[in-house]
Amino acid sequence: MNSDDGTIPCSGSLPDRIDLFRGAREPVVCAARSTKLRFRQSRGDERAAYGKKAAAALTLLGDAAKGWLAVFLAQRFSDSEMGAVAMAAAAVAVVLGHMFPVFFRFEGGKGVSTALGVLLAINVYLAAGAVATWLIFAAFFRYSSLAALASALFAPFFTLILYDVMHPFFWSMLAIAALLIWRHKNNIRNLLAGKETRFGSRAGH
Predict the structure, then answer these.
(1) Which of 33, 34, 38, 147 has its C-alpha lying 20 to 30 A from 168's C-alpha?
(2) Which residues neighbour 81 within 8 Å (Cβ) at sequence distance 6 or greater?
């Protein structure tokens, strides 16, 4: 729901308690608005450059935090026997909510940071494995998108090391990995065509 001036409200409300809606609340907009940071294209403006970096950092933290919070709340308020199922469902729901946010006309992000928050809430070792995979691929190939895709592909295998194939976490990781790969379909095309942007160039991932 938009306010009278056409902006999207950033304050909390009842729908925010639902995982899908929590995922829909884009931290990049709220972070930029609350800190008065704007993505300006002004030559030689150091404040604009700093503001862009600060907003990007806040966005990453905010996306990861909402992924972690959704899974944590599912664990906290679910029945002990169904805790793993609730956490797995919340994990998929919050990533979907980020990719297709209700408040932003279903046009969201790619879900990498939110998925990281989900992994942190499920098992810190899963998160560590995904981060390590990302760092290795990023260091060797210097493609952020390729590193994210590798992390998504390896996450289900890391889950199998800690849980069995019938565990809800494994199936939720498969679903999230599939969503991340599908969301990066344009990056995959660019990688195959040799047109994907590397670290250090102007157009970022």
Answers:
(1) 147
(2) none
